[in-house]
Amino acid sequence: MDLIQNSKRPENWKDVAPFPTANTVTFEGQDRLPKLPVPELDVTLSTLRNSLKALSWNEEEIKQVEKKIREFEKEGGVGWTLQGRLTARRDDANIRHWLEDFWDN
To answer: From 33, 56, 93, 94, which residue has the greatest number of CB atoms within 10 Å?
Structure first.
C-alpha cells in the first residue's frame, strides 16, 4: 500500500537520522519491542460511537453517524477491507510498526 509521502523530507529520513549516543537508554530496547496490535474493528467502532456521542450537536446528527458506521462495519464491506489491510501491514516483516507511516505522515 502506497502512502502519500511528505515531500519535504527524504524517503529514508529515519535511516539517516542520528542514532542515540552510546550510553543513552531511551531507545535501547526498541528493536526488541513487539509489534503494535491492530485493534479489532468492533472495538474501534464502539470507541468511535462513544466518542462521537459526546461531540454531536443533536440526536439527528448521532443517527446519521450511526447509519454511516453500520454501513462501514457490514460484513465484507469497506471497514473489513481496511481492517484486512491494517493486519497485513502488521504482519509484513518489512514494516516495523503498522501505524508508523500513518503517524509520521
So the answer is: 56
List the chain pLDDT tens, one digit each, 105 residues. 455 555 677 778 777 877 777 777 877 777 788 888 999 999 999 999 999 988 989 999 999 999 999 999 999 999 999 999 999 999 998 888 888 888 877
The Cα 35–Cα 53 span in angstroms is 31
- In whole angstroms, give the CA distance from residue 32 to residue 89: 18
- Pairwise CA distance, residues 30 & 5, whole Å: 24
R_g (Cα) of the chain, nearest Å:
19
Q: How far apart are CA 45 and CA 64, in angstroms?
A: 15
- The amino acid at 54: A
